Amino acid sequence: MNPLVWITGLLLVGLFVMVLEVFIPSGGLLGFISIAAIVAAVATAFVEQGIGSGFLVLAITAVAVPATLAIAFHLFPSTPLGRRIMPSPPEPQELVPGRKERERLREFVGRQGRVAMDLLPWGQVEIAQEKIEAVSQAGPIASGTVIEVVGTEGRAVIVRTIETKPELRAFPEPSEDAQGTSSLQEKGDESPISSVKTFEEFKFDDFEKPSGA
User: Fold this and answer.
1) Environment class of residue 112 by beta-carbon count within 10 Å: exposed (0-12), middle (13-18) or buried (19+)?
2) Which has more confidence, 54 or 1?
3) What are the angstrom distances between the C-alpha of 179 and each of 5, 170, 191?
4) How wide is the angle at C-alpha 23 spanned by C-alphas 13 and 59, nearest 5°?
5) Would you say 64 and 41 are in contact if contact means Cβ atoms under 8 Å apart?
6) Which is higher by pLDDT, 208 or 78?
7) What is the fold of 99-161?
8) 99, 182, 188 from 185: Cα distances, Å
């Protein structure tokens, strides 16, 4: 058989087995076979084709081996085994410290609670029986005040006071005396005050003149 066929075959087998070693870890067995095949290809070139052909095959090997390994390692992370061994790098936002805590605090936006510790402007609020660090949106807020979460700042929530509307009270029912008075008015009875006459209505002729006049 032509020595060039042996040289080419051994070199291709060595590179192929080298790729298998990357994708299928064998504890070094496939790597040993790959190196043996490549060395055999170079040795055959020196022995059968001379020094010039030997150095040519050696130069080809020096370029082909690193290129093959680079391609294999580039494709390895996309394989099922590669995804298990080499997980994908985290997203940039996942590297920010306290990211999960800020995401949890965003869930409180729009909810209401009470001030657990005076906000001056920093303090604590209680929402759903959970105490959270908070900052007032405008001015201090006294403890016990009803608040609403409007945003987040760092690891705290931003709150504002809620204007509570006064409760509407039912008009008081009239007392018995008032009911009696209204019933008398409906019947047309005059009250004692209404029976008093005015100055114009008073008749002076009804009085007797004094005897000495």
Assistant:
1) middle
2) 54
3) 125, 18, 14
4) 40
5) no
6) 78
7) OB fold (Dihydrolipoamide Acetyltransferase, E2P) (2.40.50)
8) 76, 5, 5
Go through the chain and tell me how many residues it has: 213
Q: Are 178 and 170 in contact (CB under 8 A)?
A: no
Q: What is the mean pLDDT of residues 149-169?
A: 75
User: pTM here?
Assistant: 0.40
Answer yes or no: are the C-beta atoms of 160 and 150 closer than 8 Å. yes
CA dist 78 → 47, 68, 74, 104 (Å)? 41, 16, 8, 33
Contact 68, 15 (CB under 8 A): yes
Only one residue has tokens 């060395």, namely 39
Span 58-102, pLDDT tens digits = 899 899 888 988 888 888 777 776 667 666 666 655 555 567 777
Lowest mean pLDDT: which of 37-51, 131-145, 151-165, 198-212?
198-212
Q: From residue 95, how far is each of 86, 89, 91, 104 by CA, in Å?
A: 18, 10, 7, 16
Measure the CA dihedral 153/154/156/161, to 10°. Answer: 0
3-state DSSP assignment of residue 207: coil
CA proximity to 22, closest of 60, 73, 74: 73
106 — pLDDT class (breaks 50, 70, 90): confident
